[in-house]
Structure prediction request, 70 residues.
Amino acid sequence: WLVDYCRNLWPFDMVVLDESSSFKNSRSKRFRALKLVRSRIKRLVELTGTPAPNGLEDLWAQIYLLDGGE
Prediction:
């Protein structure tokens, strides 16, 4: 909802994702919304209490948000 609310006027240069495991699905609405404004975020911190994924696919989206696909 925050991305929809701010639209092109994204005011945050740092974002902390608590429970980043909720961003592990790259087809989810929440992942796609954050991906839209990711280029405007200078620092992204991901926190999770469940660091053990079920496979590499579970890690892909979370790592993509950190490094932009590099």
Summary: The two ends are 27 Å apart (CA to CA). Residues 24 and 56 are 10 Å apart (CA to CA). The longest strand covers residues 14-18. The chain has three helices and two strands.
